[in-house]
Design a protein that fits this description.
The complex is a heterodimer. Chain A has two domains: 222 residues, 3-Layer(aba) Sandwich (Rossmann fold); 129 residues, OB fold (Dihydrolipoamide Acetyltransferase, E2P). Helix content of chain A is 24%, strand content 32%. Chain A is built from nine helices and 21 strands. In chain A, the strands form five sheets. Chain A has a six-stranded mixed beta sheet with strand order 6-7-8-3-9-10, with helices on both faces. Chain A has a five-stranded antiparallel beta sheet with strand order 15-21-16-17-18. A four-stranded antiparallel beta sheet of chain A has the order 2-1-4-5. The longest helix of chain A is centred in the middle third of the chain and has 18 residues. By secondary structure, chain B is mostly helical. Chain B has a single domain, classed as Orthogonal Bundle (MetI-like fold). Helix content of chain B is 78%, strand content 0%. Chain B contains ten helices and no strands. In chain B, 38% of the residues are buried. Classes of the chains: A alpha+beta, B mainly alpha. At the A-B interface, strand 6, helix 3 and helix 5 of A face helix 5 and helix 6 of B. Chain A: It comes from Opacimonas viscosa. Chain A: InterPro entries: AAA+_ATPase, ABC_SmlMolc_Importer, ABC_transporter-like_ATP-bd, ABC_transporter-like_CS, P-loop_NTPase. Chain A: Keywords: ATP-binding, Nucleotide-binding, Transport. Chain A: Pfam families: ABC_tran.
Chain lengths: 361, 220
């Protein structure tokens, strides 16, 4: 079931802003620099903001105005600093919320324990857990609260890389299988890209961009200090160990290093732009993955590198190379008078077909 | 010993009544952000710094049969408030109030508010969150508040003597009994009373430190 949140957020230090979220398009990522107002936004939505600002804000969920306290609010806020009751074990901490919450649980106890890999921790007290384990318990507790919207404020910041990747992918699975909607706050654009279908960029208490991730990711990447990367949505193929691009069953991708969770129907993989090599001829012998592409745009960076925007059917790929390497490709281009579409940029249309090469994901 | 019974009854009743008054008041004051907050804080903390004789003097005037409070009490119960057990109980409630209230306010401000918000956002209704989850988490401060209130009431002297006098079985508490024994140069009995008070005070503090759990909120 889809869920729509509309809000007019009034903060103490700014004029405020409005937003309208429909989770039909997937989880929502909130991206922005430190102090942009990401956590403030989440606390407002959960009914935990400053009382004066809360009074002046207006939040509706599926058209119904939220006027009651945080316990009746369908959003649960999960902080990056988990607060557990120290005298109780992990089981007791989890059961306490499961038993007393007003909301009936959407996901069975056993499933939560299995998906969050909590079985070895159940008998331990919070003092015996590491920072990452505490964050996992806090996340599991939010799942057991039964609320349909979970607001995650840098929830996996203390986890190791592999565990964080696993948890971020878990959000996609939980969204698809249990209709639990997530809002993820992060400084890391790649984390958001892995598990969200929509992205909201916020700066200085103002929304600078919001939309479906495919449409706004490249614009946000240009503002971000993180390196360029492409987002590939992969589906498991009938051939073992192979995947194909969503919507392109003939485009097979080798991605044997990606972890797969049971029940996962689609997987998002990130491909760093500097790991993509571009040639005018395909080199199947040298690279595992070769995609024929059309050159959309050439973006010149300040440090004499260029970023190529390539299109394979509807999938956009980014490739980064030095200006000298790009010139060595010796591409044929047609100068045109007026730029009229996305396929034409800088007054040139590139007609030479290109091949993007990258190693197994 | 009669004086010991009076002291124990007074201290126990004072703590029980104060807990009933202080838990909701401390919760309210911990969350209240209005302009009158310093006024309420001053009013609650005043007995802590006020000489007992000043408090006793004003209470004695208020308890007089011709004063409004004294008259009201007499019309309700038919007895005098001054020089009665009820009078010293009322005095003790005021005098020991900050000792019970302050630890609770501090705990509710630091820990209670965080847990309350946490449990509420997890879908637990406000009152259920408070009684089933926040109060057990704050039990360390409840123990501290009760122990301090009990020990402080047990050691009251000046205020009791002023508003209660020295009536055996009614207002003569152990500290007043000790004063009488010293005045009569009955040092053997005075030693017994003093040791009893010393023992109770020491045991109260020992219990306080033993029972207080390490309940600081755990954060990464």
């Amino acid at each position: 079931m889809s869920l729509v949140i509309e809000a007019r957020i009034q903060t103490n230090h700014s004029e405020g802003y409005s937003l309208a979220w429909d989770f039909k398009e997937g989880n929502i990522g909130v991206y922005g620099p430190t102090g942009a107002g990401k956590s403030t936004l989440l606390k407002h939505l959960a009914g935990l903001g400053h009382p004066r600002a809360e009074r002046n804000s207006r939040i509706t969920v599926n058209g119904k105005l939220l006027t009651t306290g945080p316990s009746h609010n369908p959003c649960v806020y999960v902080s990056q600093h988990p607060s557990l009751v120290p005298a109780l074990t992990v089981t007791q901490n989890l059961q306490m919320v499961r038993r007393h919450s007003l909301w009936s649980s959407r996901i069975a106890w056993d499933d939560v324990i299995q998906l969050c890999k909590l079985a070895p921790l159940l008998g331990k007290t919070p003092a015996m857990l590491s920072g990452g384990e505490l964050q996992l318990v806090s996340f599991a507790r939010a799942l057991l609260s039964g609320k349909p919207v979970i607001l995650l404020d840098e929830p996996f910041s203390a986890l190791d890389f592999a565990s964080r990747q696993y948890c971020l992918r878990l959000l996609m699975l939980l969204h698809a299988k249990y209709a639990i909607h997530f809002v993820l706050v992060s400084h890391n654009l790649q984390d958001i890209t892995l598990c969200c279908g929509q992205i909201l960029a916020i700066e200085d208490q103002h929304i600078v961009q919001f939309g479906i991730i495919e449409k706004v990711l490249h614009d946000i990447q240009q503002q971000s200090a993180e390196g360029y990367f492409s987002r590939l949505v992969l589906k498991p193929d009938t051939k073992a160990h192979l995947w194909h691009l969503e919507g392109h069953p003939n485009t097979l991708i080798q991605a044997h290093t990606l972890p797969s969770t049971e029940g996962e129907t689609a997987l998002i993989a990130l491909l760093q732009a500097n790991n993509v090599t571009v040639h005018t001829e395909p080199h199947h012998a040298l690279f595992t993955n070769v995609l024929s592409c059309k050159l959309l745009r050439v973006h010149h960076e300040a440090d004499s590198t260029v970023t190529l925007h390539l299109l394979h059917s509807k999938q956009r790929l980014l490739a980064q190379m030095s200006l000298a390497e790009f010139q060595a490709l010796n591409l044929q281009s047609t100068t045109i008078n007026q730029a009229t579409s996305d396929t034409i940029a800088g007054g040139k249309r590139y007609d030479t077909p290109l091949y993007a090469h990258f190693a197994s994901l | 010993m009669l004086a010991l019974t009076v002291s124990m009854s007074l201290a126990t009743l004072t703590v029980l009544i104060l807990l009933v008054i202080c838990i909701p008041t401390a919760w309210w004051l911990a969350h209240y952000q209005g302009k009158a907050k310093p006024f309420w804080q001053t009013l609650i903390t005043l007995p802590l710094v006020l000489p007992p004789t000043v408090l006793g003097f004003y209470l004695l005037l208020a308890f007089a049969p011709n004063a409004p409070l004294g008259q009201l009490w007499q019309s309700l119960t038919g007895t005098n408030l001054a020089f009665s057990f009820s009078g010293i109980l009322l005095g003790s409630l005021i005098y020991s109030l900050p000792f019970v209230m302050q630890p609770l306010i501090n705990e509710f401000q630091q820990v209670g508010k965080t847990y309350q918000q946490l449990f509420e956002t997890l879908g637990v209704p406000r009152w259920r969150a408070f009684f089933l989850l926040v109060l057990p988490v704050c039990r360390g401060s409840l123990i501290t508040a009760s122990t301090l209130g009990f020990a402080h009431t047990l050691g009251e002297f000046g205020l009791i003597l002023l508003i209660g006098g020295n009536i055996p079985g009614e207002t003569r508490v152990l500290s007043v009994e000790l004063y009488n024994q010293i005045m009569l140069l009955d040092y053997a009995s005075a030693h017994q009373s003093a040791l009893l008070l010393l023992g109770f005070s020491a045991i109260s503090l020992l219990l306080l430190y033993w029972l207080s759990p390490k309940h600081q909120i755990l954060k990464v």
